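Dear support,

We are seeing what looks like truncated structure output for some complexes. This example has two components. We would appreciate it if you could run it in full and send us the complete token output so we can diff it against ours.
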Amino acid sequence: MLKNYIKIAWAVLQRRKFFTFISLFGISFTLMVLMVVTSLYDHAFGPQMPERESDKLLFVNNMREQFKEGYTNSSPPSYYFLNRFVRPLKTPENVSINSIFMPVNSYVNNKKLTLDQKHTDAAFWDILEFNFVEGRPFSAQEVNNASRVAVINQNTRKNYFGDKEAIGQTIEVDQVKYKVVGVVEDVPVLRLHSYADVWVPITLKSQDFKRTGLKGTYFATIKAKKASDVPKIKDEFASMMLQVNKNSKPEGVQEVFSFADDIFGTFARSLMGGGKTDKSGLLYGILAFAAFLFMLLPTINLVNINISRIMERSSEIGVRKAFGASSATIIGQFIVENIFLTLLGGMLGFLISAGVLEMINDSGILAYVNLGLNLRVFAWGLLLCLIFGLVSGVYPAFKMSRLNAVEALKGGSK
Amino acid sequence: MIQLTDIEKVYRTKTIETVALNRVNLQIERGEFVSIMGPSGCGKSTLLNIMGLLDEPTGGYVAIDGQPVKTHSDSKLAKLRNEKIGFVFQSYHLIHDLSVVDNVELPLLYRNVSASDRRKRALEALEKVGLSARTKHFPNQLSGGQRQRVAIARALAGNPEIILADEPTGNLDSVMGEEIMDILLRLNQEEGTTIVMVTHDENMALKTNRLIRFFDGQQVADSMVIEAQI
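Here is the complete output from our reference environment:
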């Protein structure tokens, strides 16, 4: 039966080529945009290198002070806050403190190179799963000793040393020389908490350690023992913040806010304004609604095209009913046909998406992004195709299945 | 086999009411070849559609094998049509996008029949109507007579107990019309298939067993053909 339906669907597609083109273009373009967005989302928030175990990771990247006069002031937290209050939390498996990345200058063969540098502790390398192509991370001892060692990314190695090995070589950044101990695969800039070109020990910025304010230029990366511990860590963090508010808030400040959020949560909170509640659900809702609106127009278009296509086939509906098809069978047939059409459009959409993603990768708009259609994106795309096919097929199919068999036969061609 | 009791069919719009069938009582017995005649618009096709469970009467009831079908669900009616009835239409109503053999398989699609068995039965039906050489053609590659033979093969494929034919020769010239009539007669005589045929052609009607005449939605005559000829 399925083969028969697909034969018909294929023949119908070939019959009105312009309609087919409009349908397929609408589906493939819509899916292409959604796939590119999904791929970007997956790249920014999905379990990707080096934040592979994203379900166990929490990030602290904001400290908001609400002053008695009513205004608020936000920035990343200070080393003092993270070291004094976050590092001692008991529920996490591990806590890393690392600086935000800062642009620094370097000169290679008289050519200026602007690199992003990040100061980290040794726990950073334990928590995150970087792909080392050469060497190793710097050790706890090197951090304690404030050794001038660096881990660089592949792109920096290429700029400095071409195709040669980098381990043991020296790089000079902001007039400070570092010995390269490791080279890692490039981390996309979308991974704000891990990304840099050059990572060096946090102790090289020890002047920051003495400042006792709550705001500064540091992040904390927290790893839970297991994913189910994440809510407990958030609770412990919230209790800790109560204590901070009680005992350690700066003068003139009415309340301070900071949260341990997962990667999407940090993005949601910074985008939607810092409140007390987690904004992930709201942002997911807004994104889903935006995707719904974005899909609505082509869906309505497809519904209309489907209705006019199916109307042409009223005689066929009449014949099928006469020979034993129930209304439910007719609905099933048109939904199968529509899913076939949307899957075709989906395949086209996949191909176009692959091209567009390649263009984004090559354009360098986003540093080191390597967007691609992986299995997760593919699954999302397939799901979107099916939803698209169902939504745009159900109404016309239902409408036509209600057609009286005699009327349908009269409306048919000879 | 098919019993129509006090069948009425009234088409209503806001301003007008048209009576298509007025208290029709009819009993079709197994193995009969019945022709229905009457002027255009007298309700012949409406009657055939009601017999074939494609349309609902506004009054009275239809019973198949003694079972009234008034309360049957859409899917139960579909099952009855699929298993008991085969249709042949004046304008063939073949599906243009499907090959001849795929068209003939249609009734079997809605049964639990394997693809190979479907194909076998469709080919047998095509052989019965002499179209074994045209199985892979598409309807628009066939003449009118050949299309109607495909339509008959489609009606036969499901091995129905009754065939309802609505002016099966109406679109054909006399030679092709005779061919189609011969096939229907053979089916009735050799395989015992019950056939009810609407026709405008007196000569065709006189070849059947029983002739029913309609006028203005009413049955005005019902006689065995030998009597009708006298």
